Structures are given as C-alpha cells and as structure tokens.
Known about the structure:
single chain; alpha+beta; Beta-Lactamase; Helix Hairpins; 4 domains; 15 helices; 17 strands; 51% helix; 20% strand; extended
Amino acid sequence: xxxxAKLLLLVTLSIAASVGAVSWLIEARTRKxxxxxxxxxxxxxxxxxxxxxxxxGDEITSAVSVIANSDSMLNMAFDLSGGGDSGKHFDDAxxxxxxxxxxxxxxxxxxxxxxxxxxxxxxFGYKQRWFLNEAGEQSGxxxxxxxxxxxxxxxxxxxxxxxxxxxxxxxxxxxxxGGRKLDSALLQSLATPAGMRILVxxxxxxxxxxxLSSTSQNFEADKLMPLVQKALQQPGxxxxxxxxxxxxxxxxxxxxxxxxxxxxxxAVLLVGNSLQAQNALENHIAKVSLLIALFGVAxxxxxxxxxxxxxxxxxxxxxxxxxxxxxxxxxxxxxxASHDEIGQLAQAFNQMTQELIAQKERLVQTERVAAWRELAxxxxxxxxNPLFPLQLTVENLLRAREAGQEQFxxxxxxxxSTLLAEIANLKTIIGRFSDFSKMPAPQLQAVDLNELVxxxxxxxxxxxxxxxxxxxxxxxxxxxxxxxxxxVLLRRVVENLVLNAIDAMPNGGRLTFRTATAEKYGxxxxxxxxxxxxxxxxxxLFTPYYxxxxxxxxxxxxxxxxxxxxxxxxxTVSSKKNEGTTxxxxxxxxxSI
Length: 593
C-alpha cells in the first residue's frame, strides 16, 4: 500500500474513530446522568410515599388505639366476656369508625367471630382467622406498626392501611382492626415530576384492576407482572425497562415491595420513569456525530491527499521513526539524507529523542523521590504532635518517682491516661496513612468476561495494526458464565496487562487472549511472544515500585494484583526468556461466593 493510501486511510480512520469515541463517551455519560437522575428521583418518590404511608399509618394506629382504650369498648368486652349478647353491639363499629374517620373497622370476639363491622355489617358472626395465630403468640399488646392488607367489602377487595389492637377482658382477648383505604388519591398527592408515575399493585386476581395509578394514563398490566412477581419474591429495589406494544416511549420501572401483616409482602410500589427524553437526546447525538464524521472524513481525505502528494522519503522516515517512538521504542534514530531543511529536521529529531529519553528518566526518578519525600514529610509532621506530650508525660513520671511513692501514684494514674490517649492518636494517624494507600473497594456485579475481552481487543485494534510493529491477535473465548466483578476495575486490569504485553513486543509478535471456566472461577489468560522474563523477575513482578522498563513507575502490576485480590481472585505469571510471557487470572463466578 502506498504512503498516500496509508495517509488517506489513517486520517479517515482517525477522524471516524475520534468522532465515534467522543459520541460514545457523550452517550455513555448521558445514559449515566439520566440513570442517576432516575435513581435519585425514584428514591425521592419512594421516600415521600413512605413518609405519607407512615403518617397515614400513625393516624390510623392512633385512631384504633383510641377505640380499643375507650370505656365503651372496655365495657363491651367485659359484657361479652361475661356471656352478654353480642347482637346489641351490632352497630358499634359504625359509631366508632365515624368518630375516628376510618373507612374500615371490625370488632372481633376471642374466637375471631365478627361482633360488628362498619364497612360490611352483613358479615356479623363471620369468623376471620388470619390474625389469630400471630396474635395468640403476643404476651403483650400487638406491635405498633400499621400494615397493608386487602379488605373484602360488598364492592370487592380494596387495599387498606390497617392497624390492630387487643382489648383484654377477664383473661380473654378481643380484637379491634381498623384502617383506611389506599387509593389513587394518596398517589396523586405526591409531588411526581413530569415523565414519571407511581403505581401500586395488590390484587393478583383483578389483573389491570389490581393496580392503583397516580395518572389516568393507560398501560399494559401484563407487561409489569414479571417485575411485580419478582418484587414479591425478592424484597428490595428491583428495576426493569418496559417496552410498550402501542409504541409509547419505554419506561424504567423500579419495584419495591410493601409490608403486610407478618413477613409476606402485601403490595408492590412501582415508580416509572419515561425514557422519551433520553432516547430523543441519544438520537440527536447520533445524528450530529454522523454529520461531523462525514464532514471530517471528507476534509481529511482532501487534506491528506494534498500532503501525501508533496511528502518525500525522508519525511516518511521521520514519520516511521515518530511512530516507533509513540510505540515505546526510544532508541530509534533517523540518518540525515541531506543538508537542507529536511536534514536539519532529522538532526533535530535525533537530538529531541535523546533529550526526551534523559528528561523522562529524570522525571520518573524525580517523581519517585518526591512522592517518598512528601509521604515522609507528612508522616513526620503528623507523628511529631503526639510525641511531645508523650515526652512530657515520661518526664513527669520520672520527677514524680523522685518525689516519693504517694505523689508518684497520683501522677502515674494521670500519666497513663495521657499515654494511652496519645498512643491511640498515633494509631489513628498510622491508620489514616494506611487507608491512603488502599485501592477503592470494587462495586461487584455480574460481568460478561468474554464481552469485556472483546471490547478491549477492539480498543487496541489500531495499536495492534501498526506497520512498524504489527501484533497478530488470537482470540480463543470459551463459554464462560457471568463473573462477579467491578467492570471498570476489571477493564483496567485487562488493559494494563495488554499494555505490558505490547511493551514486551516492540518489534511485533503474537498476542493470545483466552477465557475458560475452572470450577467456581472464570479464567482469563493473556500470552505474548515478547522477550520473556527470568524467574527472579517473575518473583518480583508484582512488587510495588519494581520495574524492568526505563519508563515504568513499578506500580501497574502491583495495582493489578491488588484489584484481583479485592475481587477474591488470583493472578499468576509464567515466562521463559526469549519465548514469551503468560498472565493467568482467576475470578469467582457470579453467586459462587
């Protein structure tokens, strides 16, 4: 391929890759911002709902307690426990419910029979057994918390916030259960931002009618049922993206189970956030990026064609030499072919290369020394403050010893307290410096190891394809289940290992990526055909500040080992001089720990 063709291809690919990378970064950042905003708004709405729920529950609990503790209720309990006629109390529940503004109120006999019902009087004498087992285990009053439960009414089942209280009379327990219905009015009272809505699901036998909504907007209930069932089975914040069949914008729904009587959830709170704004912005970014890429590629083709037509062989040598320096070969030199400006440029290039090598070595050494000096200075400064009180305390002990036993005992008690306090201060200081050196804790989640490896191979594709040091890549990926890892930290690990392999093959070679499964671990291997390492170098390879490269800091592989260790995995290295090096990484599979 001619130089002109290479320049044309290089400029085209560079512009397209740059625009693509920027577009991808913008879209990724946009999705991250929208996702964070969605989580924040969802958390705010859930917290607001819980506050309203607790406030309503407190009111209901207070109202039921007032009824249970009223003289008339106690008199009724004593009357019935003594064999009185329950029929004369048929309408008592209506009176109590009206006075305390309750939608539902049932008065129960010790055997669970309904004495009086405010919302369904016809159920007089019916027995309800759902609360008796738990109530029978209570030696004192029932728990103070309110709870959710479906209440049967003549119009059908309704979701209600209920509270229960026990009335003791002559050694038996009567029960007061009352509450208010949870309907759309409570949801509509919440400050719901535009593009969001709140649903509450409670009735499995009513289909779409089992949902309460903060809006009048229709939705396909069957689309939400898998998320609802998962939330009922796995308490906690569960989310899913719902695509509607009618062409409406996708929505991200977060599902949170709501407590019922006992351990079983009674309902599910769903908070939906429309993706319309996010999708519109991402489409706009994609269109703008495509236009910029087209104009950029056209401009690059014209410009590179003009430059390539006037470039001579010495300039090509300079370009090749610069490319080798960019790949890490600092020993390259360009022989001046003439005494004109091109020759002077070659001489200046060689001189610049030597100066860069010297400056880089000085800079690495200077940075290392400066880092240790700064660490020593800070540690000395922090330790000096508690050492002075320790010295004074010891001197006081010596003087008190000479003054006599009585004074020594008094000073000894005070001094030991001071010594212990200052020693604790020293431990705190040392702990802070220890924490300073720690890596951030990994945020574990399910990660597709094969997909991560493919993305890294794609990222380094341009560097593998350099003409001066072409690297052949072999990708051997087995079927590996998801591993438990932090995708960001793990990607850095793989990228760091690839960069080390590239540095080990300045003249090109073959780089092999492998994945496999070994018991409870996912395995990743990276093999190069570089210069290799001695056994002594392999032993010290993960030691901080140890490096065999002139431009290395000695921290890269130490950080890699630290990250793998934080993931409860392990990394080993095997190498033979002049044959190559293989890094072997094992990471636990999802759910194996």
